[in-house]
Amino acid sequence: MKYFLLSLLAVCLLPFQGICQTSSFNGGWSFALSDASGHPNAKMEAIHIPHTYNLDAYKTKDYYRGYAVYEKQFTIDKAEAGRLHYLHFEGVNSKAQVFLNDQLLGAHQGGYTAFNIALDKALKFGATNRLKVVVNNENKNLAPLSGDFTIFGGIYRDVWMVSKAKTHFDLDQLGGWGGIIRTPKVSASQASLSFEGKINSAQSQNLKMEVVLTAPDGSKVMAKTFKKYFHKGTKSWHVEMPTVNKPQLWSPDSPLLYHLTATLKDRHGRTLDTFSHQVGFRWFAINAQNQFELNGAPLKLIGASRHQDKAPYGIAVSDEQHFADMKMIKDMGGNFTRLAHYPQDPAVLDACDRLGIIVWQEIPLVDIMSKNEAFTSSATNMLKEMIEQYRNNPSIAIWGLMNEACIQVKYRIKKKEPRDLFCLWTAKFGKSLNKLAKEEDPSRLTAMAFNEDINYDRYGMSGIADITGWNLYPGWYGGQLKGFEHFIAEQHRLFPHRALFISEFGAGSDARIHANNPQKFDFSMEYQQKYLEHYLKVIQNTDYIMGGSVWNLADFSSASRQESMVHINNKGLVHLDHTPKDVYYFLQACLVKDRPIVHIATDDWANRTQVTEGDRAKIEVKVYTNQNHLSLFVNGIDHGERTVRNHIARWKMQNKSGVYQLIAAKNRTMDVATLSLNNIPAKLKKGAPVNIHINAGSSVIYTDHAKTTWFADRAYSEGGWGFIGGEHFKQGDRNGTVATIKDTDEQPLFQTARIGDFSYKFDVAPGTYQLALNFADLSNWGPQSAYLLNNQQGQQTKVGAIDVEINGKVVLKNFTPAQVVGGHRALVKKLLIQNDQQQLNIKITGSNGQAFLNGLSLISK
Ligand code: GCB
Ligand code: CA
Could you say which of 3.30.2130.10, 3.90.190.20, 3.20.20.80, 1.10.10.10 is the CATH number of the domain covering 284-594? Predict the structure, then answer.
């Protein structure tokens, strides 16, 4: 095992005053999964922080939840003796115990806030120190107890070594840096400014504090020195700065930042410590119309929510990546982000300050609470830590307290009455958190977010915080798109004085899935567009809606999710690799005002292989734009000007196979795209080779990993091919299942099926063909499904048994996929067929229970 010493650190820790007191401590660590005492389970490996030990969450829902150990050796120069040393951990998920030279120095609970560990009790100077951090991500009695995201374990944010004089800005409490900047009264003409230093004085003495404010351009605005006699110990020193006249205000359009530096000096004027932070002068409130007002003017808050992970790194991402994500929200024209569901890296908040993004940041109270004392007290502490650590960031306007706090209750508490009691208790807990947030930081608004359930009104929860957030998904998980505006209108009618925020709205999409006729929950790129086009318009046009936050900026890791992309929530405006989906530009077209936006929305589906009636494909080209009119040129031919509605210009056309260059333009603003059409006429050419792949029971076109296109299920027509009879397998009003199908990477192929007694007919010439039948028994299909199978536990489950006839000849009898491979597992049955007729008729019937077929392909041999 090899340890490296951060040479930078050694340089920094030479005796100094005021310079380089804080340096990163990310290199030279080693790591292994461990037992509870931190004894490694395997050979330690060299790693660099940020680090997570849960990349398994991309592969299994049962990702590792447990202990791990991180170690690092370091030395500190003898000349450093006499100073104090701390480690500042920006975030360790979820629990940490820190040992130095085998002595436990401190512990922290909660994966999303920073903490400081004082080292000197065990620190050796001029000799090797052994640091050990034992981490655990099981979240016993620790928020979040549940939630639609992965609890990646590890030391996943920066670690800092801090060296301080014995008298310094306090680092011991709540993970902060010992300074609070307040701007309690700001107007266009004047701003008040105060600084509170929490000072740890090594002895009783006279101290000086010099506070300097610099303007956004770096020039000095004011400097003031304060003096005070301090008794030994920790105390706050609150100083008022002179009024700032005509402050340059901070806003999303103009995120101007001042800087405050407080320098602590001894009576001889020698520097002891400094504290420095950006300052934004702005004021905000909720006005009489329940709108958000910034600097005296209403401002609709629109943007995206953000999780902190990025594939394939989990949550071990760099500050640069954090910045890049926030920049994407900014470039989209967003003025808002909801940092859901937990406080994020300090680099995120710094980015929001610098870019001008108004922030709702929250503690990770998600899905369900616990009455357990350990849970409530750690959650309360998280709120205190969040406020202490981030209160100086001017971009933060809202502290979030809870998200969908009763959504899991019905699964965990079966009887209705105790359920009600539990939620009433949750409301009480929410009230106490709201009160605490107001006491700690009266300058911010508070918010809670709820799923679509009016019981929150009944429990008195939806009225606790300043802002009532609704996470609304009508038209996705269920219901219709217009259910959205109906729900929120009803809330406004019932509670006309509430500030209503659409804290989530979104739909999943998968780059492999496309639809000409997009349907709710089909995971097509096109349905997500339809959904967001609908929601955003309502949010923008409804005055009483304070704002909205798309769920989510990016596709994110949620190990337990089973949908088209297993372990991934794909509601992102950008893909897993954070490249934009077309719909990102819809948001941009709606939100950007200061520059022209034109985006031809064909990137997501630039290569289209699809079945066409004649030899032409019916195409609708959508262009997202903030212009009123646009023209489209296809291979240089003018297709006319269109009036833009809801930031969309549309052209309908019918095109032959080929590659087309599209140009959408208004004056000099234009976008260029390439669209390639590969039309497959529905009528088969007699004698031509056949190569048809059908996604049975599905309305979408799916491109698999081999780049083969599977067509949507279609009814047979003369001279062509398709199904006769049967129906789509449905769960509730959704097509297919979301359950994971094992033994395949092609979930969308196997998650849908045609069921009943049906056939597929192909009007093909005599010859040799390979027919492949895709099966996955999706569930118990109801009482008719009669085939009984003993599973491993000896219980009997019902599965479908199928007869297959080709041109009247039985080829499979009593074929029972679940008996061969098990339920919810993929099975591909290939048959070589000698066809002597002018057609192939594949008849599928249930020999025992209901027949099903998840997909089929027919290829000439
Ligand atoms: C919600 C949750 C969020 C989920 C989201 C979804 O309401 O607050 O954590 O990820 O729905 O995608 O279902
Ligand atoms: Ca960081």
Answer: 3.20.20.80
Ligand 1 binding pocket, CB closer than 6 Å: 147-148, 403-404, 451, 471, 504, 551, 569, 571
**Cα torsion angle, 462, 465, 468, 472, sign:** negative
Would you tell me how many other CB atoms lie within 10 Å of the CB of residue 504? 24
pTM: 0.95
Same fold, 187-279 and 614-675: yes
Task: Dump pLDDT digits (tens) for 636-672.
Answer: 999 999 999 999 999 999 999 999 999 999 988 999 9
Give the count of beta carbons closer than 10 Å to the beta carbon of residue 845.
16
Domain 21-164 has what CATH class?
mainly beta
Residues 115-128: tens digit of each pLDDT: 999 999 999 999 99
**Which residue among 146, 148, 535 is best mutated to probe the pocket of ligand 1, counting the most ligand atoms within 8 A of its Cβ?**
148
Please give the Cα distance from 627 to 629 (Å, whole number).
6
Protein residues with C-beta less than 5 angstroms from the ion ligand 2: 157-158, 319, 345, 347
CATH class of residue range 614-675: mainly beta
Assigned fold of 682-860: Jelly Rolls (2.60.120)
Q: pLDDT tens digits, residue range 443-481?
A: 999 999 999 999 999 999 999 999 999 999 999 999 999
**Which CATH architecture fits 187-279?**
Sandwich (2.60)
Q: How far is CA 19 from CA 258, 276, 349, in A?
A: 21, 13, 24
For the chain, the domains span: 21-164, 187-279, 284-594, 614-675, 682-860
